[in-house]
Each structure stands twice: as C-alpha cells, then as structure tokens.
Write a structure and sequence with these properties.
- Strand 2, helix 7 and strand 3 form a beta-alpha-beta unit.
- The longest helix is centred in the first third of the chain and has 17 residues.
- Helices cover 33% and strands 14% of the residues.
- The chain is α/β, with parallel strands linked by helices and 317 residues long.
- The chain contains eleven helices and nine strands.
- The chain folds into two domains: 173 residues, TPP-binding domain (Rossmann fold, 3-Layer(aba) Sandwich); 136 residues, SIR2/SIRT2 'Small Domain'.
- It binds ligand BJW.
- Ligand BJW binds next to strand 8.
- This is Deacetylase sirtuin-type domain-containing protein.
- It comes from Cryomyces minteri.
- Keywords: Metal-binding, NAD, Transferase, Zinc.
- Belongs to the sirtuin family. Class I subfamily.
C-alpha cells in the first residue's frame, strides 16, 4: 500500500487500513529519527540542511575526534544542547507520547538525543534511547564511572559560551554562522567582516568540564558516537521486548533515514516477527523495502503523525 500521494495528503484508503491495524495492534514498536524533531527547528543529519552535510561526522562524533580535539567536540555539543533547549516538542512528539500511554504493548526506540520526547511526556519506561542523551554527561577517565543525568547547564562551561555579540544567538543566521565556523574551524583572519563576531577560538582542555568525582577525567557528552557500542542495558531491554513474544503487529518508522546500525536493523527484526511497517518521511527514497502490506506516509512528521494516530488517540494538541 505504498502511496504516491502529494506531500501531506494522506490517501483515505491508506488512512483507513492503517487506523484499523493500529486499533487492533497489541504489540507496537516505534523507531524514531531526527526528522521527528525537524519541525521543532532541529536539523537532521543526512538530508538537505543536515548536520553531516556540512560537518564531518568523523571530526565531531567519534571517540577519536574527542581524543584529538575535545574543545571542538564540546563546542559542537554545547551548541547542540543550546539548540535543543531552545526547541519545543512538536505535535508528533505529543501524539506519540499519548499513543504510548494508551497502548500497553508499546515500545519506542528513539535515535534522538534532543530530549523532546521526554519533554512531551512520553512514558519513560516505554522509551529507549538508542544513541544516548545530549543532557547526560560522563567521565572519560578509564577508572571512573561517573555519569550525570539531566545536566541542563547552558553553556556547560563558561569557556563554551556561544560567542555571538550583538546578535540573537538563537536566530537562524547566527546558528548557521556559528556551526559553519565550527565545522571549518575558521580563524578570525579567514572570516569576512560580517562574520567577525562569531570567531571561535580553540578551547583548552583545562577550560572544559571536568569530572567532579575523580577530578582527573574530562567529562564528555552521554551520546553514542560512531564505532561505540549502544548502551548494553538498552540493547538488552529492546532485544528482550522483541524476543519475548511470538509476534509484533506494527512498527512505526518515523523521520529516520534508517541508515545507521544497529538501530535500522530493528525494522527487519520487527518484520520477522510479523510486523507491518508504516513509514513517515518527507523522502520516499528513505523508505526502502516496503511491501504491499506496508504504508508510506509522505510529509512532515509533525503533521502526519497526529493525523494517522487520531483514530486511537483523538485530537491531541
Ligand atoms: C523528515 C522530516 C520531517 C526530514 N518529517 N521526516 C552494519 C553495516 C554498516 C555499518 C555498520 C553496521 N553496524 C554498525 C555499523 C557502523 C555504524 C553505522 O551504522 N554506520 C552507517 C552510517 C553505515 N554504527 C555504529 O558505529 C554504531 N555502533 C556500533 O555499531 O557499535 C558496534 C560495537 C559493538 C561493540 C563494541 C564496540 C562497537 C553507533 C552509531 C551511533 C550513531 N550516532 C549518531 C550521533 C549521535 C550523537 C549526536 O547526535 O551527535 O546518531 S550519528 C546520527 O545518525 C545520530 C542519529 O541518531 C543517527 C541516525 O540518523 P537519523 O535520525 O536517521 O537522521 P537522518 O538525518 O539520517 O535522517 C532523517 C530522516 O528524516 C530523513 O530520512 C529525512 O528524509 C527525514 N525527514 N525532515 C519527517 N519534517
């Protein structure tokens, strides 16, 4: 039942067959990605305007990057924390939180680190954060296990204050200028006059957040970088939920390119348990391997998700 509808126009037959399946489903998974938060103003990673289109993931989101230049990596994550704090959950976050509360056999696997699902009231026991959380910090010292959750300090260290003078640091222009300068590590000399105020000096390790417990290690963001294992407890919980029962009725795949593993692999795992797949995405090309029994809903998750869940959750605003 893959649809070729115009953006945001949901074919009534698709809506009807999906709603019917949703109503009768007792075991549902949701796999969430950055597109869910796009309408909240947060950039995705791979699409148009995506972070990895202009930022080299290997210089910012790997353990090696942190070893090489922890100041640059912290500037990037301090900025991401700032943006996430300024953002607000959108209608799709609220709709999914509501659905999760209403369906007992429901588990959300979120790749998002922005905290918006939590702020929308998503039941925490039904929310597994596959790639961690921007607002967790942990010590990098090998012998120290310090982890702090819910750290919302912005900036996380005085030296990481976003150096934008005379401009609203939350404006698109300032964000863009700051993140571009971050990526390219531009020096003041290289920037043109209009960019002067956003020059980002390198931040010495001594000025970065340090572990309050061991006093030795640098703190790092509690997110999962490329080449790192996903949190063991999270993987165990997800695998157990999937394996525990003979069947899964439905998997909602919302706003993800489904290119990053092991997260993307959960779609096939759910399918192997009988799940029908419903993809919500602005790009049809990111909905691979759908069968005639699946659904593709094209458009902005913030509009589509409340609409397709309406039959079960009603109007949630
Ligand atoms: C909209 C929209 C709107 C836009 N409405 N839709 C198997 C094969 C090949 C490689 C591997 C493999 N297994 C593992 C790997 C390696 C690697 C990997 O997958 N690489 C691939 C890129 C090829 N995986 C890993 O390294 C993982 N670790 C691992 O496997 O460890 C093994 C291990 C075991 C034991 C010991 C040691 C190691 C870790 C992956 C961590 C990913 N981390 C990041 C950064 C997190 C922190 C941060 O935020 O900075 O996670 S990368 C980035 O990608 C982030 C995201 O969560 C993740 C997924 O991206 P997402 O959410 O799908 O975003 P986009 O931008 O890709 O897609 C957005 C979608 O939304 C698009 O489709 C748009 O069209 C759509 N959209 N607007 C609806 N309004």
């Amino acid at each position: 039942m893959a649809s070729t509808a115009a953006p945001s126009a949901i074919p009534p037959a698709d809506l009807e067959s999906f709603s019917s399946r949703l109503k009768s489903s007792t075991r549902i998974l949701a796999l969430l990605g950055a597109g869910l938060s796009a309408a909240s103003g947060l950039p995705t990673f791979r699409g148009a305007g995506g972070i990895w289109r202009t930022h080299d993931a290997m210089q910012l989101a790997t353990p090696e990057a942190f070893d090489t230049d922890p100041g640059l990596v912290w500037q990037f994550y301090n900025y991401r924390r700032h943006m996430a704090l300024a953002a607000r959950p959108n209608a799709a976050h609220y709709a999914l939180a509501e659905l999760s509360g209403r369906k007992e056999g429901f588990l959300t696997l979120s790749q998002n680190v922005d905290g918006l699902s939590q702020r929308a009231g998503h039941p925490l026991e039904k929310l597994q954060l596959l790639h961690g959380n921007l607002f967790d910090v942990k010590c990098t010292d090998f012998y120290c296990n310090y982890v702090q959750q819910n750290n919302y300090t912005d900036p996380i260290a005085p030296a990481l204050a976003i150096p934008v003078e005379g401009t609203d640091p939350t404006s698109f222009e300032a964000r863009h200028a700051v993140s571009s300068a971050l990526l390219e590590k531009k020096t003041r000399k290289e920037l043109d006059i209009a960019d002067e105020s956003i020059y980002l000096p390198s931040v010495p390790a001594g000025d970065l957040p340090h572990c309050p417990e061991c006093k030795r290690g640098l703190l790092r963001p509690g997110v999962v970088w490329f080449g790192e294992a996903l949190p063991g407890k999270t993987i165990d919980t997800v695998n157990q939920w999937i394996m525990d029962s003979k069947k899964i009725d439905l998997i909602l795949v919302i706003g993800t390119s489904a290119k990053v593993y092991p997260a993307a692999g959960y779609v096939d795992m759910a399918r192997s348990k009988g799940a029908r797949v419903a993809v919500v995405n602005t790009e049809q090309g990111d909905a691979r391997g759908l069968t005639k029994d699946d659904w593709f809903f094209k458009g902005d998750a913030a509009i589509i998700v409340p609409e397709i869940l309406k039959g079960v959750i009603g109007d949630v605003r």
